[in-house]
């Protein structure tokens, strides 16, 4: 793992949590951890703040090119669940980042630290795949072609691995294309975020389109919304300046939503209620936004 990886992790670790009024001990928390490490679970109603996000729309700048493609067989490390290891740890799980369900009922995840893609059955049997171009993998998703697609943060590339372990790496042009989140789009392509300020689209054959512009600022995670567009978080360099929720159509029109309750957002997903739900890491809150920009922020006491 390169120095960039250490910096990436160090920045995240250095962000101070913003406590609610009264501090972490000023409100009853939803769970408390006792000295014997057992957990006592209760319930707490989150504080709610509602508003409406401001929207800006612009056409993204577009660059199209074919990625450099390299294919090779993966090396594997097997680790049956029957090994004499603690029940909460399986050999080869090393600073995992993303996870998704995959073919044949297994779970697939990225091991950022040891540069491998992991496959785990629901009974805990683990196989790690390392191979060409896997370098600081982060996001992972099931693709429309039956393979798993993932982002490589450290070398700025997109990876593809078949259920049998065949790895293909699509080089985008170096670390300037450091990629993080990825999802299968409604158009049969894979869509991903580039923390330097871009949203990428790659077809299963390796044709790449990069969308950029002032409305895309340090994007983190991406998901398909209930409206058939792609939605992503702009964390504003892990702070409040220009932090926003972004929407991009498959043709490249970008809309940025800003407002109170959007503060360093990272993860995002489409909810069962037809809205987008996201987490604000530095402000310790959960946000909900409709496709028209109605915004609700939920905060609760910190769990200690």
In a few lines, what is going on in this structure?
Strand 9 and strand 10 form a beta hairpin.
CATH second-level architecture of the largest domain = 7 Propeller
Mean pLDDT, to the nearest integer, reads: 80
Distance between the termini: 32 Å
What is the top-level CATH class of the largest domain? Mainly Beta
Number of domains: 2
The CATH homologous superfamily name of the largest domain equals YVTN repeat-like/Quinoprotein amine dehydrogenase
User: What's the helix-strand series?
Assistant: HEEEEEEEEEEEEEEEEEEEEEEEEEEE
Largest sheet: 5 strands, antiparallel
Whole-angstrom Rg:
20 Å
Helix segment tally:
1
- The global form is globular
How much helix is in the residues?
under 10%
Class from helix and strand fractions: mainly beta
CATH topology of the largest domain: Methylamine Dehydrogenase, Chain H
Key phrases:
304 residues; mainly beta; Methylamine Dehydrogenase, Chain H; 2 domains; five-stranded antiparallel beta sheet; 4% helix; globular
Account of the 3D structure:
The protein is mainly β and 304 residues long. It has two domains: 43-60 and 214-304, Methylamine Dehydrogenase, Chain H, CATH 2.130.10.10; 63-212, Methylamine Dehydrogenase, Chain H (7 Propeller), CATH 2.130.10.10. It has one helix and 27 strands. It has one helix spanning 3-14, and strands at 31-33, 39-41, 47-52, 54-59, 61-66, 68-73, 75-79, 96-101, 107-111, 116-120, 126-130, 137-142, 148-152, 157-161, 166-171, 179-184, 190-194, 198-202, 207-212, 219-224, 230-234, 244-248, 253-258, 265-270, 276-280, 285-289, 294-299. The strands form six sheets. A five-stranded antiparallel beta sheet has the order 3-27-26-25-24, with no helix packed on it. It is globular. Residues 9-41 and 79-90 have low confidence and may be disordered.
């Amino acid at each position: 793992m390169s120095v960039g990886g250490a910096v990436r992790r160090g920045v995240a670790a250095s962000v101070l949590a913003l406590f609610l009024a009264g501090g972490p001990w000023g409100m009853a928390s939803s769970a408390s951890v006792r000295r014997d490490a057992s957990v006592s679970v209760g319930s707490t109603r989150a504080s709610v703040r509602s508003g409406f996000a401001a929207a800006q729309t612009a056409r993204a700048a577009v660059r199209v090119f074919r990625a450099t493609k390299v294919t090779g067989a993966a090396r594997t490390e097997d680790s049956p669940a029957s090994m004499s290891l603690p029940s909460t740890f399986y050999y080869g799980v090393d600073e995992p980042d993303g996870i998704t369900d995959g073919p044949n009922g297994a779970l697939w995840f990225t091991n950022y630290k040891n540069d491998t893609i992991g496959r785990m059955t629901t009974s805990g049997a683990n196989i790690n795949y390392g191979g060409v171009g896997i370098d600081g993998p982060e996001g992972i998703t099931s693709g429309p072609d039956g393979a798993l697609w993932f982002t490589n943060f450290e070398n700025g590339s997109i990876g593809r691995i078949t259920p049998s372990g065949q790895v293909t790496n699509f080089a985008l042009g170096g670390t300037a294309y450091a990629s993080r989140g990825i999802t299968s789009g409604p158009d049969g392509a894979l869509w991903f975020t580039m923390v330097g300020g871009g949203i990428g689209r790659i077809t299963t054959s390796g044709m790449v389109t990069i969308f950029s512009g002032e409305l895309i600022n340090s994007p983190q995670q991406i998901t398909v919304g209930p409206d058939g567009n792609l939605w992503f978080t702009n964390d504003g360099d892990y702070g409040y300046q220009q932090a926003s929720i972004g929407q991009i159509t498959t043709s490249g029109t970008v809309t940025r939503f800003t407002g109170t309750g959007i503060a360093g957002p990272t993860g995002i997903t489409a909810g069962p209620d037809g809205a987008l739900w996201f987490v604000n890491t530095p402000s310790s809150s959960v946000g909900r936004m409709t496709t028209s920009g109605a915004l609700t922020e939920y905060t609760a006491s910190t769990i200690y």
